[in-house]
Design a protein that fits this description.
Number of helices: 2
Radius of gyration: 15 Å
Distance between the termini: 37 Å
Length: about 120
């Protein structure tokens, strides 16, 4: 867990969750064939899945934020997604682990990312 500063970290984490929610929405709508996601929960709490939160963490090497208990797969390949810490110039700043932007400013998948990972 990283040391949070309010209120700016609330906004940053909200942006991360919005971007990840967009990916989940695309998967649920079958706009990303072959993709899946998993919300990993702590079974020891015996709470229903819907009661488990999202574990937001910070990559200590570069400060980017990610959700450690939400994973995405394209077929057998796992992909991780992060956002730059305190990014204020892009409405959908989600990146893959290599730093490639995933979304355009309006929330649609961008061409280079689709080429790299979706072969579209």
């Amino acid at each position: 867990m990283y040391l949070r500063t309010l209120p700016k970290d609330l906004y940053t984490e909200a942006v991360l969750l919005r971007c990840l929610g967009r990916l989940v929405e695309l998967i649920e709508d079958r706009d990303l064939p072959g993709w899946s996601y998993t919300h990993h929960v702590d079974d020891s709490t015996q709470l229903p899945t819907r009661h488990h939160g999202f574990d937001i963490r910070q990559d200590e090497s570069d400060g980017r934020l990610y959700c450690s208990n939400l994973s995405f797969n394209y077929g057998p390949n796992a992909l991780d997604f992060l956002i730059p810490y305190h990014n204020t110039d892009h409405g959908w700043p989600l990146e893959d682990w290599n730093g490639e932007d995933v979304f355009s400013r309006n929330g649609t998948l961008i061409y280079p990312w689709k080429e790299l990972y979706l072969n579209q």
